[in-house]
Specification:
Layout (H helix, E strand, L loop, with lengths): L2 H20 L12 H26 L8 H26 L5 H9 L17 H21 L5 H29 L3 H20 L11 H6 L7 H18 L10 E3 L4 E3 L5 H11 L3 H14 L1 H16 L1
Antiparallel strand pairs: 1-2
Helix pairs in contact: 2-3, 3-6, 5-6, 5-7, 5-9
Bound molecules: Phenylacetyl coenzyme A (FAQ).
Phenylacetyl coenzyme A binds next to α2, α5 and α8.
Protein backbone atom coordinates (compact mmCIF):
# COMPACT_ATOMS: atom_id res chain seq x y z
CA UNK A 1 0.00 0.00 0.00
CA UNK A 2 1.49 3.37 -0.95
CA UNK A 3 2.28 6.00 1.67
CA UNK A 4 0.10 8.53 -0.18
CA UNK A 5 -2.87 6.20 0.05
CA UNK A 6 -2.40 5.74 3.83
CA UNK A 7 -2.09 9.50 4.34
CA UNK A 8 -5.22 10.22 2.34
CA UNK A 9 -7.13 7.49 4.25
CA UNK A 10 -6.07 9.07 7.55
CA UNK A 11 -7.03 12.51 6.24
CA UNK A 12 -10.46 11.23 5.31
CA UNK A 13 -10.99 9.65 8.71
CA UNK A 14 -9.93 12.86 10.42
CA UNK A 15 -12.34 14.87 8.30
CA UNK A 16 -15.18 12.50 9.17
CA UNK A 17 -14.25 12.67 12.84
CA UNK A 18 -14.22 16.47 12.83
CA UNK A 19 -17.59 16.41 11.07
CA UNK A 20 -19.04 14.10 13.73
CA UNK A 21 -17.77 16.43 16.46
CA UNK A 22 -19.24 19.44 14.69
CA UNK A 23 -22.65 17.82 14.43
CA UNK A 24 -22.64 17.03 18.17
CA UNK A 25 -22.03 13.26 17.93
CA UNK A 26 -20.70 11.48 20.99
CA UNK A 27 -17.46 9.54 20.44
CA UNK A 28 -17.40 6.05 21.95
CA UNK A 29 -14.33 3.90 22.78
CA UNK A 30 -14.40 1.73 19.66
CA UNK A 31 -14.95 4.65 17.26
CA UNK A 32 -12.03 5.93 15.20
CA UNK A 33 -10.37 8.94 16.80
CA UNK A 34 -7.18 10.89 16.08
CA UNK A 35 -4.25 9.80 18.22
CA UNK A 36 -3.96 13.34 19.54
CA UNK A 37 -7.61 13.30 20.76
CA UNK A 38 -6.92 10.03 22.59
CA UNK A 39 -3.70 11.42 24.13
CA UNK A 40 -5.31 14.68 25.21
CA UNK A 41 -8.19 12.82 26.87
CA UNK A 42 -5.85 10.42 28.68
CA UNK A 43 -3.81 13.40 29.93
CA UNK A 44 -6.81 15.33 31.14
CA UNK A 45 -8.75 12.40 32.58
CA UNK A 46 -5.78 10.91 34.38
CA UNK A 47 -4.92 14.29 35.91
CA UNK A 48 -8.53 14.59 36.96
CA UNK A 49 -8.52 11.11 38.55
CA UNK A 50 -5.22 11.88 40.32
CA UNK A 51 -6.77 15.09 41.65
CA UNK A 52 -9.60 13.12 43.23
CA UNK A 53 -7.13 10.75 44.91
CA UNK A 54 -4.82 13.47 46.17
CA UNK A 55 -7.91 15.53 47.04
CA UNK A 56 -8.84 12.98 49.70
CA UNK A 57 -5.81 13.95 51.78
CA UNK A 58 -6.56 17.53 52.92
CA UNK A 59 -10.01 16.53 54.20
CA UNK A 60 -8.96 13.06 55.38
CA UNK A 61 -6.76 15.00 57.79
CA UNK A 62 -9.89 16.19 59.66
CA UNK A 63 -11.99 13.00 59.89
CA UNK A 64 -10.72 12.18 63.37
CA UNK A 65 -11.24 15.78 64.51
CA UNK A 66 -14.76 16.44 63.17
CA UNK A 67 -16.74 18.31 65.85
CA UNK A 68 -19.71 15.90 65.99
CA UNK A 69 -20.71 12.39 64.94
CA UNK A 70 -22.95 13.84 62.21
CA UNK A 71 -20.11 15.91 60.77
CA UNK A 72 -17.75 12.93 60.95
CA UNK A 73 -20.18 10.68 59.06
CA UNK A 74 -20.70 13.31 56.35
CA UNK A 75 -16.96 13.95 55.93
CA UNK A 76 -16.21 10.24 55.81
CA UNK A 77 -18.84 9.76 53.09
CA UNK A 78 -17.45 12.71 51.13
CA UNK A 79 -13.88 11.43 51.18
CA UNK A 80 -15.10 7.97 50.14
CA UNK A 81 -17.00 9.58 47.26
CA UNK A 82 -13.73 11.17 46.10
CA UNK A 83 -12.07 7.73 45.96
CA UNK A 84 -15.07 6.55 43.93
CA UNK A 85 -14.75 9.50 41.54
CA UNK A 86 -11.09 8.67 41.02
CA UNK A 87 -12.01 5.05 40.21
CA UNK A 88 -14.74 6.07 37.76
CA UNK A 89 -12.40 8.38 35.90
CA UNK A 90 -9.49 5.90 35.82
CA UNK A 91 -11.96 3.34 34.41
CA UNK A 92 -13.15 5.84 31.80
CA UNK A 93 -9.48 6.48 30.87
CA UNK A 94 -8.96 2.73 30.47
CA UNK A 95 -11.52 2.75 27.63
CA UNK A 96 -8.89 4.73 25.69
CA UNK A 97 -6.31 1.99 26.10
CA UNK A 98 -4.52 3.49 29.10
CA UNK A 99 -3.69 1.15 31.95
CA UNK A 100 -4.71 2.37 35.42
CA UNK A 101 -1.59 1.05 37.13
CA UNK A 102 0.62 2.90 34.67
CA UNK A 103 -1.33 6.14 35.02
CA UNK A 104 -1.09 5.89 38.79
CA UNK A 105 2.67 5.33 38.60
CA UNK A 106 2.93 8.64 36.75
CA UNK A 107 1.33 10.35 39.73
CA UNK A 108 3.64 8.60 42.18
CA UNK A 109 6.82 9.35 40.21
CA UNK A 110 5.84 12.99 39.73
CA UNK A 111 5.48 12.95 35.93
CA UNK A 112 1.71 13.57 35.97
CA UNK A 113 0.00 16.67 37.26
CA UNK A 114 -2.97 16.96 39.63
CA UNK A 115 -4.97 19.98 40.70
CA UNK A 116 -2.94 22.77 42.29
CA UNK A 117 -5.60 23.32 44.97
CA UNK A 118 -4.68 20.19 46.92
CA UNK A 119 -1.19 21.45 47.67
CA UNK A 120 -2.36 23.75 50.44
CA UNK A 121 -2.74 22.76 54.10
CA UNK A 122 -6.06 22.45 55.95
CA UNK A 123 -5.42 24.44 59.10
CA UNK A 124 -8.81 24.47 60.84
CA UNK A 125 -12.22 22.80 60.81
CA UNK A 126 -13.51 25.84 58.91
CA UNK A 127 -11.41 24.67 55.95
CA UNK A 128 -13.78 21.68 55.59
CA UNK A 129 -16.63 24.11 55.01
CA UNK A 130 -14.72 26.28 52.58
CA UNK A 131 -13.36 23.34 50.57
CA UNK A 132 -16.92 22.06 50.06
CA UNK A 133 -18.17 25.53 49.17
CA UNK A 134 -15.30 26.76 46.94
CA UNK A 135 -13.44 23.67 45.74
CA UNK A 136 -16.46 21.46 45.11
CA UNK A 137 -18.30 24.55 43.85
CA UNK A 138 -15.51 25.15 41.31
CA UNK A 139 -15.48 21.46 40.40
CA UNK A 140 -19.24 21.59 39.70
CA UNK A 141 -18.86 24.61 37.39
CA UNK A 142 -16.06 22.83 35.50
CA UNK A 143 -17.62 19.38 35.44
CA UNK A 144 -21.21 20.23 34.46
CA UNK A 145 -19.62 21.35 31.20
CA UNK A 146 -17.52 18.17 30.95
CA UNK A 147 -20.74 16.15 31.39
CA UNK A 148 -21.62 17.39 27.90
CA UNK A 149 -18.19 16.72 26.38
CA UNK A 150 -17.67 14.75 23.17
CA UNK A 151 -16.21 11.59 24.75
CA UNK A 152 -19.03 9.33 25.99
CA UNK A 153 -17.40 7.50 28.94
CA UNK A 154 -15.99 10.73 30.43
CA UNK A 155 -19.28 12.61 29.95
CA UNK A 156 -21.29 9.83 31.61
CA UNK A 157 -18.88 9.59 34.55
CA UNK A 158 -19.30 13.34 35.05
CA UNK A 159 -23.10 13.13 35.34
CA UNK A 160 -22.96 10.92 38.43
CA UNK A 161 -19.94 12.74 39.86
CA UNK A 162 -21.66 16.12 39.57
CA UNK A 163 -24.64 14.84 41.56
CA UNK A 164 -22.31 13.83 44.37
CA UNK A 165 -20.37 17.10 44.11
CA UNK A 166 -23.62 18.93 44.71
CA UNK A 167 -24.04 17.13 48.01
CA UNK A 168 -20.41 17.96 48.82
CA UNK A 169 -20.95 21.61 48.10
CA UNK A 170 -24.12 21.78 50.19
CA UNK A 171 -22.50 20.15 53.19
CA UNK A 172 -19.61 22.62 52.91
CA UNK A 173 -21.85 25.66 52.63
CA UNK A 174 -23.85 24.39 55.63
CA UNK A 175 -20.66 24.31 57.74
CA UNK A 176 -19.82 27.80 56.46
CA UNK A 177 -23.29 29.14 57.38
CA UNK A 178 -23.15 27.57 60.85
CA UNK A 179 -19.75 29.07 61.65
CA UNK A 180 -20.62 32.44 60.09
CA UNK A 181 -23.63 32.67 62.41
CA UNK A 182 -21.74 31.34 65.42
CA UNK A 183 -19.57 32.98 68.06
CA UNK A 184 -17.10 35.76 67.23
CA UNK A 185 -14.26 33.21 67.32
CA UNK A 186 -16.11 30.94 64.87
CA UNK A 187 -16.80 33.85 62.56
CA UNK A 188 -13.11 34.80 62.58
CA UNK A 189 -12.17 31.19 61.88
CA UNK A 190 -14.43 30.93 58.83
CA UNK A 191 -13.37 34.32 57.45
CA UNK A 192 -9.74 33.27 57.80
CA UNK A 193 -10.45 30.07 55.83
CA UNK A 194 -12.25 32.07 53.11
CA UNK A 195 -9.24 34.39 52.88
CA UNK A 196 -6.82 31.47 52.53
CA UNK A 197 -8.80 29.51 49.85
CA UNK A 198 -10.37 32.14 47.59
CA UNK A 199 -7.55 32.95 45.19
CA UNK A 200 -6.35 29.35 45.10
CA UNK A 201 -9.86 28.24 44.10
CA UNK A 202 -9.84 30.68 41.18
CA UNK A 203 -6.55 29.11 40.06
CA UNK A 204 -8.23 25.69 39.80
CA UNK A 205 -9.69 26.70 36.43
CA UNK A 206 -6.21 26.79 34.93
CA UNK A 207 -4.14 29.60 33.39
CA UNK A 208 -5.75 32.54 31.57
CA UNK A 209 -6.98 31.63 28.08
CA UNK A 210 -4.07 33.42 26.42
CA UNK A 211 -1.61 31.17 28.33
CA UNK A 212 -3.56 27.92 27.97
CA UNK A 213 -1.81 25.81 25.29
CA UNK A 214 -4.39 22.98 25.31
CA UNK A 215 -7.62 24.97 25.17
CA UNK A 216 -7.94 25.70 21.44
CA UNK A 217 -7.61 22.04 20.45
CA UNK A 218 -9.80 20.77 23.29
CA UNK A 219 -12.51 23.28 22.43
CA UNK A 220 -12.39 22.42 18.75
CA UNK A 221 -12.95 18.78 19.68
CA UNK A 222 -15.65 19.74 22.23
CA UNK A 223 -13.82 18.17 25.13
CA UNK A 224 -13.89 21.62 26.71
CA UNK A 225 -17.09 23.53 25.96
CA UNK A 226 -16.08 26.70 27.78
CA UNK A 227 -12.68 28.26 28.27
CA UNK A 228 -10.75 28.53 31.55
CA UNK A 229 -11.59 32.24 31.90
CA UNK A 230 -15.28 31.75 31.07
CA UNK A 231 -15.67 29.08 33.76
CA UNK A 232 -13.67 31.11 36.28
CA UNK A 233 -16.00 34.07 35.66
CA UNK A 234 -19.07 31.87 36.13
CA UNK A 235 -17.70 30.63 39.45
CA UNK A 236 -17.06 34.20 40.65
CA UNK A 237 -20.55 35.31 39.57
CA UNK A 238 -22.16 32.42 41.45
CA UNK A 239 -20.04 32.71 44.59
CA UNK A 240 -20.12 36.44 45.34
CA UNK A 241 -23.85 36.45 46.25
CA UNK A 242 -23.36 33.28 48.31
CA UNK A 243 -20.66 35.06 50.34
CA UNK A 244 -22.95 38.06 50.83
CA UNK A 245 -25.75 35.78 52.04
CA UNK A 246 -23.62 34.59 54.97
CA UNK A 247 -21.99 38.01 55.60
CA UNK A 248 -18.49 36.93 54.65
CA UNK A 249 -16.04 39.02 52.67
CA UNK A 250 -14.10 37.71 49.70
CA UNK A 251 -10.47 38.90 49.98
CA UNK A 252 -10.42 41.00 46.81
CA UNK A 253 -10.71 44.81 47.03
CA UNK A 254 -11.24 44.94 43.25
CA UNK A 255 -14.43 42.83 43.23
CA UNK A 256 -17.03 45.03 41.57
CA UNK A 257 -20.26 44.31 39.74
CA UNK A 258 -20.21 45.60 36.17
CA UNK A 259 -23.75 46.64 35.23
CA UNK A 260 -22.88 46.64 31.54
CA UNK A 261 -21.57 43.07 31.34
CA UNK A 262 -23.65 41.64 34.17
CA UNK A 263 -20.51 40.05 35.64
CA UNK A 264 -18.36 40.57 38.73
CA UNK A 265 -14.94 42.01 37.88
CA UNK A 266 -12.17 40.59 40.03
CA UNK A 267 -8.56 41.49 40.82
CA UNK A 268 -5.28 40.08 39.56
CA UNK A 269 -4.53 36.41 40.17
CA UNK A 270 -0.98 35.60 41.25
CA UNK A 271 0.01 33.32 38.36
CA UNK A 272 3.60 33.05 39.62
CA UNK A 273 2.23 31.33 42.70
CA UNK A 274 0.11 29.03 40.51
CA UNK A 275 3.03 27.91 38.31
CA UNK A 276 5.23 27.46 41.34
CA UNK A 277 2.68 25.06 42.85
CA UNK A 278 2.15 23.25 39.52
CA UNK A 279 5.91 22.74 39.28
CA UNK A 280 5.89 20.95 42.63
CA UNK A 281 6.95 23.76 44.98
CA UNK A 282 3.69 24.50 46.80
CA UNK A 283 3.39 24.25 50.57
CA UNK A 284 2.17 20.62 50.56
CA UNK A 285 3.32 19.06 47.22
CA UNK A 286 6.00 16.83 48.71
CA UNK A 287 3.82 15.75 51.61
CA UNK A 288 0.91 14.85 49.30
CA UNK A 289 3.04 12.62 47.07
CA UNK A 290 4.75 11.07 50.09
CA UNK A 291 1.33 10.18 51.55
CA UNK A 292 0.09 8.66 48.26
CA UNK A 293 3.30 6.62 47.86
CA UNK A 294 3.03 5.35 51.42
CA UNK A 295 -0.63 4.35 50.93
CA UNK A 296 0.31 2.57 47.70
CA UNK A 297 3.12 0.62 49.39
CA UNK A 298 0.88 -0.29 52.33
CA UNK A 299 -1.72 -1.55 49.88
CA UNK A 300 0.66 -3.96 48.12
CA UNK A 301 -0.65 -6.99 50.03
CA UNK A 302 -4.24 -6.11 49.09
CA UNK A 303 -3.38 -6.00 45.38
CA UNK A 304 -1.40 -9.25 45.66
CA UNK A 305 -4.27 -10.96 47.49
CA UNK A 306 -6.78 -9.74 44.87
CA UNK A 307 -4.60 -11.08 42.03
CA UNK A 308 -4.14 -14.44 43.80
CA UNK A 309 -7.88 -14.67 44.47
CA UNK A 310 -8.70 -13.88 40.86
CA UNK A 311 -6.19 -16.52 39.59
CA UNK A 312 -7.66 -19.14 41.94
CA UNK A 313 -11.17 -18.23 40.81
CA UNK A 314 -10.20 -18.62 37.15
CA UNK A 315 -8.74 -22.09 37.83
CA UNK A 316 -12.20 -22.91 39.18
N1 LIG B 1 -3.57 22.50 38.66
O1 LIG B 1 -3.63 24.34 28.69
P1 LIG B 1 -4.22 24.32 30.05
C1 LIG B 1 -11.97 18.30 42.26
C2 LIG B 1 -1.90 22.55 33.82
S1 LIG B 1 -11.33 17.76 40.79
C3 LIG B 1 -2.51 21.85 38.11
O2 LIG B 1 -5.29 25.32 30.35
P2 LIG B 1 -6.18 22.21 30.09
C4 LIG B 1 -12.92 17.40 43.01
C5 LIG B 1 -2.47 21.70 32.69
O3 LIG B 1 -2.59 20.35 33.07
C6 LIG B 1 -10.16 19.01 40.29
N2 LIG B 1 -2.19 21.94 36.80
O4 LIG B 1 -4.74 22.83 30.38
C7 LIG B 1 -12.62 17.47 44.45
C8 LIG B 1 -1.47 21.94 31.59
O5 LIG B 1 -0.32 21.14 31.78
P3 LIG B 1 0.03 19.85 30.82
C9 LIG B 1 -9.51 18.61 39.04
C10 LIG B 1 -3.00 22.70 36.03
O6 LIG B 1 -6.08 20.75 30.29
C11 LIG B 1 -13.15 18.49 45.23
C12 LIG B 1 -1.01 23.37 31.84
O7 LIG B 1 -1.35 23.68 33.18
N3 LIG B 1 -10.41 18.78 37.93
O8 LIG B 1 -11.62 19.35 42.60
C13 LIG B 1 -4.12 23.36 36.53
O9 LIG B 1 -6.71 22.71 28.80
C14 LIG B 1 -12.87 18.54 46.59
C15 LIG B 1 -1.66 24.36 30.89
O10 LIG B 1 -3.08 24.46 31.15
C16 LIG B 1 -10.08 18.41 36.70
O11 LIG B 1 -9.00 17.90 36.46
C17 LIG B 1 -4.39 23.25 37.90
N4 LIG B 1 -5.42 23.87 38.51
O12 LIG B 1 -7.11 22.86 31.22
C18 LIG B 1 -11.85 16.48 45.04
C19 LIG B 1 -11.13 18.64 35.63
N5 LIG B 1 -4.71 24.04 35.52
O13 LIG B 1 -0.96 18.76 31.19
C20 LIG B 1 -11.56 16.55 46.41
C21 LIG B 1 -10.70 18.22 34.27
C22 LIG B 1 -3.98 23.79 34.42
O14 LIG B 1 -0.16 20.31 29.39
C23 LIG B 1 -12.09 17.58 47.20
N6 LIG B 1 -9.66 19.05 33.73
N7 LIG B 1 -2.95 23.01 34.73
O15 LIG B 1 1.41 19.48 31.19
C24 LIG B 1 -9.88 20.23 33.13
O16 LIG B 1 -10.99 20.73 33.05
C25 LIG B 1 -8.69 20.90 32.49
O17 LIG B 1 -7.66 19.94 32.34
C26 LIG B 1 -8.15 22.13 33.30
C27 LIG B 1 -6.87 22.62 32.60
C28 LIG B 1 -9.18 23.25 33.26
C29 LIG B 1 -7.82 21.76 34.72
Amino acid sequence: MSEDFIISEEGKKLEEFEQRIKSGDIIEPKDWMPERYRKQLIRMMSQHAHSEYVGMLPEGNWITRAPSLRRKMILLAKVQDEAGHGLYIYSAAETLGAERGELYQQLLNGTAKYSSIFNYPTLSWADMGVIGWFVDGAAIVNQTMLAKCSYGPYARAMVRICKEENFHKKQGYEIVGTLANGTLRQKEMIQDAVNRWWWQSLMMFGPPDKDSPNSAELMRWKVKLKSNDELRQRFVDLTVPQAEAVNLTLPDPDLKFDEKTGHWDYGKINWDEFWNVVKGNGPMNKERIRARREAHENGTWVREAAIAYSAKHKRG
